[in-house]
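Sat 14:20. Reprocessing the chain from the morning session after the first attempt stalled halfway. Input below, unchanged.
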Amino acid sequence: MKDGLRFVDSDMHVMEPPDLFERYLDPKFKHRVITGVGADGRPTRATFSMTMLDGEPVQDIDIQQYRKRVKKGPTQSTQPLSNSRLADTGRLDFAVARDYDPVAQVQGLDMEGVDIAVNYPTSGLSLIARDGIDPRLSLAVCQAYNNWIHEFCSYRPDRLKWVAMLPMHDVHLACRELVRCVRELGAVGSFIRPNLINGRYWHSNYWDPLYTVHEDLDVTWGFHEGVSALYSRMIPLYGENRFYRHVASHWIEMQQAMIAMIIGGVFEFHPKLRVGFLEAQNSWAPGLLSRIEWDYPQYRDTHAPYLALTPKEYFRRNCWAAVEGSEPEIEATAGLIGADRMCISTDFPHFDSNFPHVAENLLKNVPRDIAAQIFMGGAHLYGFAEEHFKKADAAAAKAGGQR
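Finished this time. Tokens:
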């Protein structure tokens, strides 16, 4: 708990091991997935992010010609990210010393006062973020990651939860992998970047089987952006300027995804679908909803006659949007969309996280009753009940964790 309040981290991150594919990838595909190596001939964290699938990079940073990585700061940063405000504070030294293992992950929970954390990938956000990947290769990559993170979270399964990476290049393979991950491995949902894959809109009938499987399994669909995928519209718009793209991709891509889910009728035809809009802050949500509502009377009958609810009603039934604790607009946004439709992300251990001060920042920024709802937002998003918290409490007590 944090200051006596239940706290679900809706979006924590893992740092995948550089030899993930050497250990977990189906041998039939190993010649098609190549990771860079260091001088010792072994993959490193820096080279893992440069993985190639069928000879093509998984991250756009590896084909940029002009923008260079910023030099490391005075501490041992292992993340090839620009201008880290966290890596150079020393606050991650405990995780770096343990090479971001599960022990360090739980230590991070205890330092923030988190009861249960749902873990998302780091490099994994980009592994299949490209059009035209062979669906079977996409599946093999997803299975390798999912098998690894299942093992990682098995260290403390009552406190460390995870969402599945799905081979979105074939909707039926994605459905099968989601069923496997939930029923056999214990995943609590899936994640996808909001960028369109192979040009298929999120309101396309193509995705209906996958939305239905999420509903039937009672698990969560999480939209989670990175900087930009190789197919993202942010690349032709903003080129290699990471500042431009980091701002635009996290907000604009999320907005377009929400428009598709609401106006396109996804929530009308899949009323039990729970969707999280993560790591994009959320002050954009009420303004966007108001804009949709403004156009609703003019266009509903002619362009969206299938809609039975108002946009804000769909949002309040199906959606949660995350904050990171220090945004000055949190209280005002809660007043517009409801604190009960908000959740919080520590974003541990990423470069722009405020770890380990995320929770205390939220408590400083908003009244306690609003903070309590936001801390619990992730529980509602992922379907955690009191029984889950009791198991988390027991696991922490058994391990001697400081709550």
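Confidence is low (pLDDT under 50) at residues 74-84.
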